[in-house]
Amino acid sequence: MVEPLLHFVVPFVSLRAVGFDLRKATFASLIALTPDLDVLFNNHRSPTHSLIVVGLVIFGLLALTWKRKTARSLVLLGAFGVFSHILLDLFQTSTPILWPLLSRSVQLWPNPEFHMRSRVLLWYPSTWLDAPLITAEGLGISLVLLAPTIFTILRQATSSAGKPEKR
After folding, report:
1. Along the chain (167 residues), what's the average pLDDT of each consecutive run of 10 residues?
2. Domain extents for the chain?
3. Alpha-carbon distance 118 to 155, whole Å?
4. How does DSSP classify residue 71?
5. Are the CB atoms for 42 and 28 separated by under 8 Å?
6. CA 100 to chain centre
7. pTM of the model
8. What is the C-alpha separation between 90 and 120, in angstroms, rounded?
C-alpha cells in the first residue's frame, strides 16, 4: 500500500508545479485519499480502486455540474487526485482497476525483489491496515517534493511581516 502521505503529496506537488493555487492543490490531494476509505469497511482495494467505477462516478458528477464552472473544475481536480491514487497503487501492488470487466487485479511493475506476483482475487478483505501510514522513505520523498511550496509560503510570510499595513 502506498502510504497516505504520498497519496496526498504527489497530486499536490504535481498541481502546484503547473500553477494551481494552494487551495485547489490541497482540495485535489485530500480527495486523492478517498479510495482508501474502503479500509474502514474491512475491504481494502475494493471497487473504489476501479477506473471503471470511479470513471462512472466522475462522469455522473460532471453531468450534474456541467453548467457550473466552479463545481465542474472541482470535480475535475478531484478526478485528478483519485486517478493519481490509483496509478500510485498500480506500481505498488495488485489493484482491481478494471472491475467489473476483469475479475483479476493488475500490477504495472514488479515489486522491489523483481518478481511478479499474481492475485486472482478481485479484492481481498482486510482486518488490519496492510502497511505503515508513514515510512522514512515516504516522509523523505514528501519533504523533498513539498520543499518548494514550503519555501514559497515561508518567504511570503516573512516578506509580508515587515511591511506596514495598507489602509
Report:
1. 86 92 96 92 86 96 96 96 91 87 79 46 48 72 86 84 59
2. 4-161
3. 48
4. H
5. no
6. 22
7. 0.73
8. 15
